Amino acid sequence: MIEPSPTSTRTRQRGVTLIELVMFILVVGVGVAGILLVYTNTVRYSADPVIRKQMLAVAEAMLEESALMPFTYCDPDDADAATAGAALVGAGNCASTVETIGPEAGEARYTPTNPFDNVNDYAGFDTTTALPAGIADIAGTVIGSLTGYSASLTATAQALGPAGSVIAATDGNGAPQVLLVTVTVSAPGGDSVSLSGYRTRYAPNAVP
C-alpha cells in the first residue's frame, strides 16, 4: 500500500488566502455600490415627470379658462356691453364701465355673485393670495392632491402679427385689444413652468 506524501495532501486541501478574500469582498462591494447609486438616482428622479405633468395640467387649465372668457369693450355687467361701438363711456358706447386690465372692484375668481367675467380680470391673479389659497377649481374647491403648488397669471397688452399686418396692442382709445396671457405654475420643490397664449378682441360685444 502506497501512502500519500505530506506535500500532495497539503496541496489538495489548500483554500482561499486572506488576501484573495479581501480582494473579492472589495470588488463585490464596489460593484454593489455602483448598482445602488444608479438605483437611488433612478428612484429620486422618477417623480419629476409626474410633477412636470401636474404643473403643465394646471397651467393649461388656467390658460384655457382665461382665454375662453369674453374680451369686450365694456365690462360684461355694463348695461350697454352688448351694443357698445367703442371702449368709451358715452352715447352709443359703454354706459359706465370700460373694460381695463385687472378685475373690477369686488370681482373675484371664486365668488358666485361677482366672478371674473372677462379675460382682463385674470391679470394679477395669484393662488397664494386668493381665497381660498391654493390650486382650486372654478367653484373654489381646493384640490388636495395639489397642496404646495401655486399658480399666477399675467395679462399684458402686446402687438401681434408679422411686419406689415400687425394688430396693435391697444386701439385708438388706448384700450387693450391684444393680450399676452402667461400662466406660471410652481411645484413644492421649487420647479416651475410657464405657458403663454395670445387673446385678441375679435368679438367686442360678446357678453356671457
Would you kindly provide a written description of the structure presented here, covering whatever features stand out?
By secondary structure, the protein is of the alpha+beta class. The protein is 26% helix and 12% strand. The protein has three helices and three strands. The relative contact order is 0.15. The model has no long low-confidence stretch (mean pLDDT 88).
Main beta sheet strand tally, sense and closure: 3 strands, antiparallel
Estimate what percentage of residues fall within beta strands: 5-15%
Q: What is the CA-atom radius of gyration, in angstroms?
A: 33 Å
DSSP helix fraction: 25-40%
- Give the N-to-C terminal Cα separation: 114 Å
Class based on secondary structure composition and strand pairing = alpha+beta
Mean pLDDT: 88
For the record, the count of structural domains works out to: 1
Structural shape: elongated
Total count of strands: 3
